[in-house]
Amino acid sequence: MFDLALGKRASQSSKLPENHISLTEDASKALSLIDDGSFFHTAAEWFPWWQVDLEQSYLLEKIFLYNTNFWQLRSRLFTILVSEDGENWISVFSKTDHSVFGSDAETAYKVEFENTVMARYVRIRLDNWDFFHLNQVKIFGKPISIVKKHSKITLEKDKKNIVFSTNYNEEDDFLPIYLNNFLSYTPDFCHIYLNFPEDREIPQHLIPSDKRVHVFNGKIKRYKWGGTLLLGHMESYGKALERLGEIDFFCTCASNGLFVKFFNYDETIRNLALGHKAPVGMTRHHLIDAPVDNVPRGEAWVWDNLSDAVDFRNYLLNEANISKISINQIEGLFASGTEWENLYSRLSILEKCNEFFLNPTQKTLALEEFLPVTFFRRFGSGQFTNICYMLWEPIREITFPDLIHLVKKLPEHMCQVKWFSRNQDSPATAILSENWGRSLLQSHTMDLSAIGVHNRFRNRALTQSFADVVKITESYIPFTSKWHPAALSGRIQWILSAVIYAGDQNSYRDLVSTVPKASDISAVWLKCFNFTHITLQYEAIFAEDYGKTVLSLRSSREGEVAKQHEWGEVHSILFISPMLGENAQVLRLSVKKPLFPFQEQILGGVRRFDGKNDFAWQPFLHEDDSTVKHFYFLRPLDHVGEIWIGIPAFPSTVIDIELSVGL
């Protein structure tokens, strides 16, 4: 068969900065006649892609992908999309298993289409954040002229009742954010059922008045282990079935996952038919149809725990008629009501499964990740998809830059992302909490027309002008200005020079009595961690200079000179408070540019102390001035009284930080 892509025009989403050839030149390396070892290579980004214009429409039959000889793991998870016009794309295949393919004819990845796929443009999209590179791409098929052209498939399914289910365990003040997010990103045939714990009062005044929102108290006491989360979703399924009479599709959601774009019904249904065996882009290890009586060990800890649960596996095999078991994520698991009925009609089996894991141990299982897809594949059609993209590698909260890129680049059927901060002041959460924020986000990321470009630039000018006006009204004072009488202004305010001995864990050092206290806690104190093999020389100096407070922080192993930085675990945290009570709403840390990676690591590890406990505290805003970079930390709404900000130190640390307080 003739390679349809050979010699055609190719392109890609980006290229390495050090690569000085054009995008099309780099992309064309995958279309050479002979394998000469060349390859295309994008930059590291969310969902990078490579594509080719076949110059006319063909009936596609096969696509072969040849990996590079390096970092072959990067290309494990990808999607093939096709288009007639180069603008409107549909996905026709997704590789969701974690197998690694090779670079020669024998080990290349071969996709053969069972159903009709007609296209002029073909795109290969990597389904994660990473570099994307392949050695060759070969495409085989027939010209449209020699086959009967098929009419475009339309989705005839009546959009009657789609139910989204959430086991709600968050604070009350997050409830209106979560519900308004759902109402803003779903059409009127979608309903949400929120299952509150049985003994928790439902704050009716925080629930939007909308017939699509249903909040009730479930009877299942939920835990993070066993099957209680799945049973909670089954309670929602039962409530929805009782009220609506029929459920066309049912989707399980997480209370810390939010919609980031509008739910695309047509693409979601299309992806059901593609037969994904795992979520698109799922970096976490999974297996499909593992034998219950011979669960493989060494694949992942969840499978090892399942292997150890002998009584549970015997029950599945001998009494529940389950011989093969699969795993998926429960977040955004979307399937027809018929598939979910396979679980609901076997509720007694789910309850019995939960009884095997009533007490938490290291060997417990999250049954909500095992049982749904297992039942779908055993008793139903096995068609499911996932509309939620999970930040599994690494597990972390979504940042604002993540949000901007993901809204643009998420697969069409994916509209939710986890993990979002439940803190209303987290930028990524905050912009999804207000109508104006959602509108601004959509205008920035979705509309690529000339008018869209015009409006984005106008919005940029408006928001920048507004920010400039607000910035003029801000006032910052030295961090230590309330530590001392006015006569001591401009002097050194506090010095600690001490040896922290190995094993000196949780040593709260209140060594200086000249600084104020709040509830017997000093305005500045040091928390140490247990490093049994490291004795640390630690020095911290707070000084006011020209109306600024500057912290000079140095740490090194005893007997060594403090070096620039040493990567490693946090050795100690210096907690400091401006002692301004509720007036300290914004704390600002400033570092001279250029900023080095070790300085970013220190400022990314900042903590917050409320007088009893300390918490991670991420900067709310970064801002560049001519010579310094500012990091702003916004007081949480639920923080009452004095606030301490914690600066981490490592076995070797050298940094100078300017500290100020916004009033």
Structure commentary:
This protein is α+β, with helices and mostly antiparallel strands. The strands form nine sheets. Strands 22, 23, 27, 28, 30, 33, 34 and 36 form an eight-stranded antiparallel beta sheet that branches. Strands 1, 4, 5, 6, 7 and 10 form a six-stranded antiparallel beta sheet that branches. Strands 13-12-11-14-18-19 form a six-stranded mixed beta sheet, sandwiched between helices. The protein is globular.
Q: Nutshell version of this structure?
A:
With 663 residues, the protein is an alpha+beta fold. The radius of gyration is 28 Å and the shape is globular.
Structural features:
single chain; 663 residues; eight-stranded antiparallel beta sheet; 4 domains; alpha+beta; Spore Coat Polysaccharide Biosynthesis Protein SpsA, Chain A; 14 helices; six-stranded antiparallel beta sheet; Jelly Rolls; 36 strands
Specify the CATH class of the largest domain: Alpha Beta
Tell me the distance between the termini: 72 Å
Shape-level CATH architecture of the largest domain: Alpha-Beta Complex
| Main sheet characteristics | 8 strands, antiparallel
User: Which shape, going by the Cα principal axes?
Assistant: globular
Low-confidence stretches: 147-156
Number of strands: 36
Q: How much helical structure, as a percent, in the residues?
A: 10-25%
